[in-house]
Amino acid sequence: MKMTKRTLLGMAGAALMAVAPMQAAAQDWQPRKPIDFVIMAGAGGGADQIARFIQAVAEQEDLTTRPLVPNNKGGGSGAEALIHVSTASDPDHTILVTLNSFFTTPLRQENLGIDIQTFTPVAMMGVDPFVLWVHKDSGITTFDEYVAKVKEMDGEFVMGGTGAGQEDSIVIAYMSGAYDLDIKYIPYDGGGAVAKDLAGQQIMATVNNPAEAKGFYEAGDFVPLLAFSDERMPAYPDVPTIKEMGHDFSYYNQRAIVGAPGMSDEAAAYYQDLFTQIYESEQWQGYLTSESLSPLWMDAGEQRDYWALQVENHQSLLAALGE
Amino acid sequence: MDVLLLLGDGMLLSLQPLNLMMILIGVTLGLFIGAMPGLGSVNGVAILLPVTFLVPPGSAIIFLAAIYYGAMYGGAVSSITLGIPGASTAVATTFDGRPLAKQGRASLALVTAALASFIGGTVANVLFTLFAPLLASVALSFGPPEVFALMLLAFATFVGLGGDDIPKTIFSICFGLVLGAVGFDQISGAPRLVLFDYNGFLQGIGFLVLAIGVYGIGEMLWTIDQTRGDVTATTPKMTVKGMASDTKEAAKRGWKGTMIGSFLGFFVGVLPAAGATPGSLMSYGVAKMVSRNPDEFGKGSPDGVAAPEAANNSASTGSMLPMLTLGIPGSPTTAILLGGMVIWGLVPGPRLFVDEQEFVWGLIGSFYISNVAALLINLAFIPVFIWMLRMPFTILAPMIFVLSITGGYAATRDMFDIWLIVGFGIGAFFMRKFDYPLAPAVLAIVLGPIAEPTLRQSLLLSSGDPSIFFTRPVAGPITVIALILIFMPLVKVIRRQMGKRKKPAS
Fold it and tell me: CB under 8 Å to B280, separation ≥6 — which residues?
């Protein structure tokens, strides 16, 4: 089941606007109808949390004249969302919340015919690092102990993560290669389900984003062992990075907003301005800190270069995975 | 007792004027959102989430929970009166609710649904209050093998029923399973069964699309075919006295289904990823299985209305549990609630019960109050719903058609789904002509997408060894019971055949 009925929301939005003062018309272009705010993942996961947070900020601060209507299309590692957005009948009112499957899914499924460079850059809201977690009852407290344990279990050490060829499997594949680990990998449909099964010790370790594991970490159930960020994270100062261990590797999930292919320059400028305001808001900056996201602000041109670089990186990562 | 003190405080909190108003508005809105075909609690909560920034977080979540509750009550209304499932959670209610309405007993069905919903909700609230932390750990002990075993049990309850044509039931289940497999494969991410390379199939076939097609359009065609358009409209009467006797009858003939739905629904709701829809379908199957006259099911059994209705209310409370205690939503609706909580600055998860006691108990207290409010409001509206049934079929049929189409479109906003609905409606009509049961197909398209990945995850865990379903302490007994249920009818058939052979010999 998918979200929301557009007309009703439109009415709700109109009702809200009736009481709110009209925003000063700073731009030439304004949305004329509710904005299709497509999310490349199912409800409840990291990308969905972020999308709903952004929607809330826009609503609270009264930043848009028409509401952002979240629309979860998580099927096929985001392929469903990419097709929906690239065939949108009204590209000026269609934007997409992306994660790294924006790069990997078109690479893995060339038959979709998606060229991400045709999409319109809007804003890079931040990047989400990955951390290696184990359950506290495992007795493992350091990465060295983890490596020893995995080797001792000789192929029976079970890790969970998102679907094959997606972010988690890439991180785990890199780590396995670097330390010569033989890990049994169980794919799940989202980060939330992965964290839950680590909490229930159905699986032995995960590479969840901090936002997904935070609750269990604070309750003392999860132990972070290794970060895949460039530098140590302020919230986890005692957790070493894989870079410190001598491997030149870091991996982040991008939390970026892109526009549909064929979006007009005026509309693109409007959304770029809108998301700059959201990015600079107190709420979003607070979210970045509390959920351990790293800021990585870029302008439109830089985003295109970043996409090209990421596609290249993922090509070699997927090739190493044997995809 | 600490818990009772906290609960008392919570109830007082939810009786504050603002919160009470939120409950009353929420329940009423929910009732109507649930009653609209295609719009369910998910849509209601998603649409109204932004409105809640106007009130403090405690009141906001009480409002949304009240909508969730109200929608569970409301879903039954169109299932019974029109035969179109008001929401995915109320599909099982059509199985018996619709036949009852056709017999002129719509008021009995509606009263049964309301009472069962109330009891289901109350049982769930009590279980929630007393055992929340314990149940959270039960939810965690359910890994992929346990979930698969449970799904197997659900299928078994549908196959292992006496009376039905078993090969046709199995065909119907397989048909549903194949439809459920269309779209992207979760494990490998590759597209499957994209018929005619049509992009619309990439996103899979929505369960509600099938249900609306089968029960909305299919039912309408069936009625037209059976009566040749000459439908003598039932003229149900609605009096206070009639309602009182309906209440008595509902209590007498629906208590068993209510009890099954209340407990089973809650338990299934607590398991993350399941939610109220599987809970209500499973409860229907179990109620039919343990019933003394299972043949009555599908033809207008109050138990058949009570079980899914008690279950969907019970499961909706149940699915709050993993959301609040683990930060993991147990249903699509709670996923949206979870998003709301993050926005309000609350961190759902293991710390919530400690750090935000007032919020948590205020919410739990509001469940009790919402439940009472929903029952009263629902009962008050029953005469209005009944009035709809007095319309002649020539007016009702186009209305059902329009509601089916708009309801199907509302869920995904995709024209492709409309064509699927029409296709399924026509297909269902013919399946019914040839006496194929349709409920198993509906069950399969809901449970298949849960069963399949958990089966594959389990086999990955065990390196392909199926004994994993028998050796684990929780999964083992469930699997064994499921297998017994599946093979029981087969044994019966063989025995009957043997008996027949013996007779001429003697």
Answer: B89, B90, B91, B92, B93, B261, B265, B307, B308, B309, B311, B312, B315
